[in-house]
Design goal:
By secondary structure, the chain is of the alpha+beta class. The chain is 29% helix and 30% strand. It has one domain. Strands 1-2-3-4-6-5 form a six-stranded antiparallel beta sheet.
Length: 124
């Protein structure tokens, strides 16, 4: 693990294995993806950013103690009980947020959403 990643997860080191598994799945599918660690999020990009991992800023009611949030962009609003929040920052650009608290949630459904987000970013 590099220093930047360690610093990013310093406040919630228990969430690091979730991030590692997510990043491994993305890189296995798209080895050319660039990962950049920012102050508040980790971005995954091809030509454009298409997925993000971030940690909760504060404790929230009815949320797990340890989790990451995976965000990704699509050209439409995705309907799923797994999506905890959706925003349309630009017309026909929908950002979806998914809480991941267990490695089992990094499943085929999530990987397919990320694949779609990757393709959407490539088409911009």
């Amino acid at each position: 693990m590099d220093i930047e990643t360690g610093l990013f997860f310093a406040k919630m080191p228990q969430a690091l294995p979730l991030y590692k598994m997510f990043a491994e799945k993305v890189l296995a599918e798209y080895p050319d993806v660039r990962i950049k660690i920012h102050k508040s999020q980790i971005s995954f990009s091809n030509k454009h950013q298409f997925a993000f991992v971030w940690l909760p800023i504060r404790t929230m009611k009815n949320r797990p103690d340890i989790y990451i949030i995976v965000s990704f962009g699509l050209s439409y609003r995705l309907e799923s009980p797994r999506i905890v929040e959706v925003a349309e920052p630009y017309p026909n650009r929908w950002t979806h947020h998914v809480i991941i608290q267990d490695k089992n949630e990094i499943d085929l459904e999530l990987v397919n959403w990320i694949k779609e987000a990757y393709q959407f970013a490539m088409s911009k």
